Amino acid sequence: MTGVSVQGFGRRHLDAVGERGRLCAGIDPHAELLEEWGLPVSVDGLTRFADICVEALGPVAAVVKPQVAFFEVFGSAGFAVLERVIRGCQEAGALVLADAKRGDIGSTMAAYATAWLEDTSPLCSDAVTVSPYLGFGSLDPAVSAARASDRGVFVLARTSNPEGAALQTATVDSLCSEPASVSDRPLRSEPASVTKGVAQSIVDAAAAENADGTATVGLVVGATRAHGLDLSALNGPILSPGLGAQGATADDLPSVFAGADLAWVLPASSRGVLGAGPDVVALRAACEKQRDEIEAAFG
Q1: Would you say 7 and 15 are in contact if contact means Cβ atoms under 8 Å apart?
Q2: Could you tell me which SMART domains the record lists for this protein (predicted)?
Q3: Is 149 part of a structural domain of the chain?
Q4: If you average pLDDT over residues 164-176, what whole number do you get?
Q5: Host domain of residue 40
Q6: Is 101 an active-site residue?
Q7: Are strands 171-173 and 195-197 parallel, antiparallel or unpaired?
Q8: What 3-state DSSP class applies to 220?
């Protein structure tokens, strides 16, 4: 574990996983899963699904991650159900990571930050996923709001989908990273003296934000492939989706994240756990089994 004193969201995160183990349980009520559970693809079905997940997962998972899109398809009624999930899981002791993947600039990004990270909002969660691909600096309103309230943001870095590789592994000239000048001139055509991957530049920017010890900025790094990133200086949580249905196993994790501080790695499973529903007892048991497999793999 890093020698930096951990406070803020980082302290909350480490306390949660220390008490409940390293697993982020996804709540993904897509239409096929509602039907598998014998529920209608409707607000009533969504509500029943959500209530079962809160009852089963809220008391045992360190972090619960509702996928916002699957609630959004039901409009305002879906968001009302999402609010119930957020409050119910928090009341049961879990941290809630809203998987919204928001990304924009200026006042729009500030509005997203208010929606997901400020106490006044009914959608206020403990953390939210965000996209840095309008420039890492565009995330400043969300990072500032999270830091002020001991909450967190998880920034997409090296995602598990194959389509992301072309952008995320592209190289950038680290000598051309001055924010004030990059947008005002063309890309340099001569060979760069120092290069790094786009995803690594995101990792480095997150590490710089976490130098204060708050671990406000986490990363999203998929567990399904070698990511090629140096995560050793991050000093913040690493959400790692891909367990179960996407093919990764708990035993894969120590090698995938070799060189990272494993205390910060937060593996995520959605379909791999939710497939045990709709029975509350079976669903909770599946969550605990996945958590125990992760803990055993990490030693």
Answers
A1: no
A2: OMPdecase (SM00934)
A3: yes
A4: 62
A5: 8-182+191-298
A6: yes
A7: antiparallel
A8: strand
